[in-house]
Amino acid sequence: MKVPLSWLRDYVDVNLPAKDLAHRLTMAGVEVGEVLATGGWSGCFVGQVLAVRPHPQADRLSLCQVTTGTEQMEVVCGAPNVATDQKICFAKVGANLLNTHTGKHETLKAAKIRGVESQGMICSELELGLGEDHSGIIVLPEDAPLGTPLDEYLGDTVLDLEVTPNRLDCFSILGVAHEVAALTGQVVREPDGYYAEEGGPITDDISISVADPDLCYRYTASLISGVTIGPSPQWLQDRLTKAGFRPINNVVDVTNFVMLEYNQPLHAFDYDLLKDKTIIVRRAKVGETLVTLDGIERKLSDRVLVIADSNDPIGIGGVIGGANSEISGSTTRVLLESATFDGYNNRETAQELRLRTEATLRFEKGLRSELALIALRRATKLIQESAGGRISAGIIDVFTGQPQETQKVTLTAERLNRVLGMEFGAETVDRVLNSLGFSTHRAGPDKVEVDVPYWRNDINIEEDLIEEVVRIAGYDSVPTTALSTPIPSQRPDSGRKLGETVKDELAATGLQEVINYPLVSLEDLQKAEWPTNSGETLRLSNSLNVSEEWLRPTLRPSLLGTLAANQGHGEGPFRLFEVGRVFLAQANDLPDERQVVAGILAGQRSEASWLESSGALDFFDAKGVVEALLERLGVSVQYEPEESPFFHPGRCAVIKAENADGATLGYVGEVHTLVADKFDLRPRPVSFFEISLDQLLQAIPDTARHFSQISRFPAATRDLALVLPGNVTAAAVEGIINRHRMVVRAELFDIYSGENVEPGTKSLAYHVYFQANDRTLTTEEVNRSLQGLLRSLEQELGASLRG
Amino acid sequence: MTQPTSEPPSSQTIERLTREAVDELSKLGTYEELETWRVAYLGRRGRLTLLLRGLSGLDIDERRLVGSLANEAKGTLEQNLERRSAEIDGAELATSASQDKLDVTLPGRTTPVGRLHPTTQIVREICGVFSDLGFSVVEGPEVEWDHYNFEMLNIPRGHPARDMWNTLWVDYQNEAGEQPMLLRTHTSPMQARVMESSRPPIRVVVPGKCYRYEATDATHEWHFYQVEGLAVDEGITFADLKGTLYEFARRLFGEDRKVRFRCDYFPFVEPGVDMSIDCFACEGEGDGCRICRDSGWIEIMGAGMVHPKVLAGVGYDPEKYTGFAFGLGPERIAMLKYGIEDIRLFYANDLRFLRQF
Predict the structure, then answer these.
(1) How many CA atoms lie within 13 A of B165 on its CB side?
(2) Taking a contact as any Cβ pair under 8 Å apart, which residues of chain B between 57 and 116 contact chain A?
(3) Catalytic residues of B, which ones?
(4) B165: which chain A residues are within 8 Å (Cβ-Cβ)?
(5) What is the pTM of this model?
(6) Among A188, A316, B56, B332, which one is most buried in terms of CB atoms within 10 A?
(7) What is the ipTM of this complex?
(8) What is the pLDDT of residues B84-134, one digit of tens each?
């Protein structure tokens, strides 16, 4: 909302610098985004063109004799619209202006242009920074006072307000004037709405009815006959231009002016285009269409409220007028509408038609019906003044509902103090409220009844009044205290806590955390071999683009995508993880949101180094990360071979908890070559792990860790090189070794197959540690235990000692 | 070197032998030479040893005198040997060190360094401050009902304030043909969820992802985090809101930061508040500052006293309970703290960005 100070001053004195005013408004909740000053045109004056003749050397240029009243100069001008007698913006030599060729501000010099010296310049909007137009010069009104500095004549300051949706009143200059008055101790001057009625009774010429009173609470109208349509007077054009509106004609401009002044949108019809002198306000009939003022033919549904004549719609109520009743150069009689429409329906209509206008911006917020009549009278007066004609006697005023009573709200000192934590005296409360235009009636020293003025639709409850008092008094007047209420007991959120722990552990293991968008494309899900036809995946109905359309049921495509996006920046190592949510649809409920951690490892194991080359990160790097994580969390698991289309055949393990009924916690494996191909991943292999944090939480032992005695007695070590059938897993071997008596630990230190080992077999070599808590084991005890272990391995797995 | 001979033990011979031995020792430079020297004087057949053996031929008085001198001489030789040996050690070490010198400027063997995402770091920092002030940290669903995201926050259907939150809707229809499921536009829905599930006193902060149907640019993301806060009890005031948020700002941004509270609008609070801190780029000067856009102030969070309709909606008596709520954007705070100028960097996951934190 643009508020030119020159306009604001019509209603309230502004006696402080614009910057200070902007600060006070901002602090009080009416944020001034920008203070735009136009001006700073030293050396520029209102001038007049005395004569124009062609430039002897150039067809497109002309030579102009220009006067500022005291001096005459010859100027070369390239504008096609320059003409004798025009009042123009003249920049003398020495003025500081935007050079439209270089884009910089420069001091204007006398210069020869095609052999003729130009002693100044006639300016366009662009050079003065008033607009983008450089197609011609600005032509000032005839009554512009010759020789006046341009700063004085055209300069202004505009406050650009960022109005919050509750403050409808600040979409009007008068509403802002009330704010300014309250903040600076001034009084608002209301505009004049008085006019003389010279025509016959309006009821002779028009009949108006409201068929759908639930959508139109009040409909007022006046009639002005004998108008002459033309450009608006300059003052009116200036006001609109500075407020960001384009002047159109002397009738439409008035409706816009009064809307900006009072907030009430108005509409002017060409009376002679109405059929049967009739207006009916009704819902549209199914199949009806209307070509609106923007030239678009619109199909209307039966929720749309139209203004119709006896046959057809001539406007969409509170949204936009129809082309069939538009004011044109030949209009002589104007029917002026000022109505109150239902805000909710107005908003729905605007959304349905995808058409938000200055009118809907206001109507949707619920204008009070008192305004309709005030604005009608003001606009009728101004149309007569700017376009001439006679105003018919009387007005039409169809009030369909109960006449709206003034909103009344009661404020008690007790509540004010309880909410704010401080006291305001009754006098201060009354003074602040009165300054904003509220009337107050004391019902005792601690209670005041307040009438809310018609321009404020946002004051409905006691707290609203409390805000009014404190925002005008200033938030700085409220003390700053610490909470003194009891501290509630902490709410445990074990899921969140686990997620944070997992992040710390993985970062400590050397992985970089990433955070991806949780929306993915169907294509990426399919590339990651995720089943998409199970109905488990939710889709958005208004996604920003197709790559962000599905709520991810898995982190897989997210991490593969992150790797793909980064692989161009080096050879790795890439060690990435994400803790995030996946979404699984549930019938008639919000989706199941599950927290998952996933990681991806690829590229070189370490940065290229002068020390040694390290080889590529592989399955066992990923598994090592998983092992370290689970170790830190105290979770015992088993890894079992698993086949899945996302993982490379034979290179995936399912991770199962040893407690929690062997629940599946997740997977670790190498991404299938074909999947890696589809994501254009360069480093190979690509190793991946994912663990459900919900499942992991179940698997974490409830009890605190339990200390186990550290033996004071030495351990004995034996090396065990076993030959085993090729299909026996290491897990099976270790299972037997680790549960054997006296064995405390076993380390796999070598795996071998090939020469010296029979085909179909492999050799695993372990350091095995024997130890007791109560004594040093004798060599005989250790050897006996070792023999027993060998027998078990032989019987259960077909193992033998390697020769 | 003198061959070991049996010399007659006397104080003079002991003194001479000691002098000779020490003199000789000072000229030796290797461990081998030292060993030869040791054998020659102190060995089983060394000169001093032999001399000691010859003591038996002396009379008792002389034997006592010369014997003690001889033992003293042995101690002197042993000490000298040790000292010389240490000197050679030092010299050898110096020689070998100068040969095995490392270029200590060479890079070390790499160890993978993992880091947390800057958002995780800043969210923790923010929640940590509130945690210290007695707030619990809880999370809520990212996919929400219109009911919690809007209705319960005093933003009914058709309310113009809905324009403040452009919404991403989930393709789901209920039996009434409505589309009530959405990606939460703020973490504020947890206000109602927390209050519905418990009684005052309440102090919570809710970090989490939020979504908006918005085009992105350097300062707007459709996917971002928010930390929402809520405190409700009997007797909580606007002054408490100011005090709590002021304390937060001091802890996060430093003791010297100035804080400004001004009126702002959010449908679920009344009165509404915007909290700003003075700009640390221009020290509050404003003019010409890009960070604060000439104002001297940087908006940090929105806040306010919980709207009576919100309290009534969850069955709390607004006549009895009051409270305040606040919400802030961690990315914005990280951007200010670290001088990041484009919010889109956060979730583009470029490692060259992430590795800086």
Answers:
(1) 26
(2) 106-107, 109-116
(3) 165, 186, 212, 226, 269, 325
(4) none
(5) 0.84
(6) A316
(7) 0.84
(8) 888 888 888 888 878 888 888 988 888 889 999 999 999 999 999 999 999
